């Protein structure tokens, strides 16, 4: 009786582990989260395929997945641009990150091992070197690796998945703050506090330091966007009678 209610499924094709599409998807996704693309940056399927050493088909399929996640916007059959966030959306992402990443940092502080101490300390050292050299590209990639490793230690994959979705949306904005040497140094102060809290197994301090890091980046980005908006307004000629 029960078998009559079962839906007859079509045979599924054999699973292909780690397909080219999956590799392209992960590469682009991590690149977005780590600030390798800029907001509004225009791209083509062919250009990305050439850069990745792939044929257009897996790139196109990977981009469709990322478009569904809000990372890209198609402007034609093979042309697209990196998504932009409004100031209201940026505030929403900031608030969500503070809540979720603070929680992950707290949990990580209670789960750190000596091996984790060494790995996170090494990543911090790479961040320090990139910040001192004002190497924005290396800094952004290492910053992504630093935070992601800490949050993996928290062993909360569902929460980390939500955090990565927000990184996917806001990651391109990090390109705007990376060239600011003063911001990099302020950010490193927060990273030092994060590291110290983790090494001391101080969960509240870890949450506070992560919150400070996120808020500093958000404030810096807000100032940059405000200045850009003022410059655009100033460039628009005013209508009216000449004086």
Compact summary:
The chain has 243 residues and is mainly alpha-helical.
Description:
With 243 residues, the chain is mainly alpha-helical. It folds into 2 domains: 20-82, Winged helix-like DNA-binding domain superfamily/Winged helix DNA-binding domain (Arc Repressor Mutant, subunit A, Orthogonal Bundle); 87-223, Four Helix Bundle (Hemerythrin (Met), subunit A) (Up-down Bundle), CATH 1.20.120. The chain is built from 10 helices and 3 strands. The protein has helices spanning 20-33, 45-52, 56-68, 87-111, 114-132, 136-153, 157-170, 174-177, 181-199, 203-235, and strands at residues 42-44, 72-74, 79-82. A 3-stranded antiparallel sheet has the order 1-3-2. The longest helix has 33 residues, at 203-235. Residues 1-9 and 239-243 have low confidence and may be disordered.
Kindly state the mean pLDDT as a whole number?
A: 86
Strand portion: under 5%
Q: How would you name the oligomeric state of the polypeptide chains in this document? A: single chain
Count of helices?
10
Strands of the largest sheet, in order across it?
Answer: 1-3-2
Number of separate strands? 3
How far apart are the first and last residues' alpha carbons, in Å? 89 Å
* Name of the CATH class of the largest domain: Mainly Alpha
How many structural domains are formed by the residues?
2
Q: Could you state the CATH homologous superfamily of the largest domain?
A: GntR ligand-binding domain-like
What profile does the largest beta sheet have?
Answer: 3 strands, antiparallel
Order of helices and strands: HEHHEEHHHHHHH
Radius of gyration using CA atoms only:
21 Å
Per CATH, the architecture of the largest domain is Up-down Bundle
Task: Kindly identify the CATH topology of the largest domain.
Answer: Four Helix Bundle (Hemerythrin (Met), subunit A)
Query: What percent of the residues sit in helical stretches (DSSP H or I)?
Result: 55-70%
